[in-house]
Write a structure and sequence with these properties.
- This protein has helices at residues 2-17, 23-41, 45-50, 69-81, and strands spanning 52-59, 65-67, 88-90, 93-100, 103-116, 122-137, 140-150.
- By secondary structure, it is an alpha+beta fold.
- It has a single domain (23-150), classed as Nuclear Transport Factor 2, Chain: A (Roll), CATH 3.10.450.
């Protein structure tokens, strides 16, 4: 009888280890969010691009929309030369919810510092929420949608 309980516990543990939301998937998603933050802050468009699916779509905190990886990178590049020039972001994750084994909804917060005002001074800190939709694509977690929702509107400087 004890062997049956041990066997069931081992089998149950194996099933749970492969369930959506296991720590390996969460760690992988957290790493992608950190890599995105690092790429965004260092103006590394090539690295940022690698973290997204081909059909990614983005609604920026400025309200601008981009569909497809090339369009998202073009918007990112344009905004880093304009409204986000010199800005640094932090994006701590608030929650990860697995919709399916290969789809996850990630709620994060953002804090932008170093935003330039139209007169060249610093705007100060801007905060808001980021919603990421992740899919597991060929064994790797990738961003397939991004929604930026500022606490207060972020208006393009130029």
């Amino acid at each position: 009888m004890i062997r049956i309980f041990v066997l069931l516990a081992v089998i149950g543990g194996t099933v749970l280890a492969d369930a959506p939301g296991d720590s390996a998937d969460e760690r992988a998603i957290r790493e992608v969010v950190r890599a995105r933050e690092s790429a965004w802050n260092s103006d590394n468009a090539a690295r940022y691009r690698e973290l997204m699916t081909e059909d990614v779509d983005n609604v920026s905190a400025t309200g601008r929309i981009a569909t497809g990886r090339d369009a998202v990178i073009a918007l990112y590049t344009k905004q880093r030369q304009d409204v986000y020039k010199g800005a640094i972001t932090t994006t701590p994750i608030e929650s990860i919810r697995f919709i399916r084994a290969d789809v996850a909804l990630v709620n994060a917060n953002f804090c932008l510092t170093g935003l330039p005002a139209t007169d060249g001074t610093q705007v100060g800190e801007r905060k808001g929420r980021l919603l990421f939709l992740f899919v597991k694509d060929q064994g790797h977690w990738r961003i397939t949608a991004i929604r930026g929702m500022p606490e207060t509107p972020i208006v393009a400087g130029k």
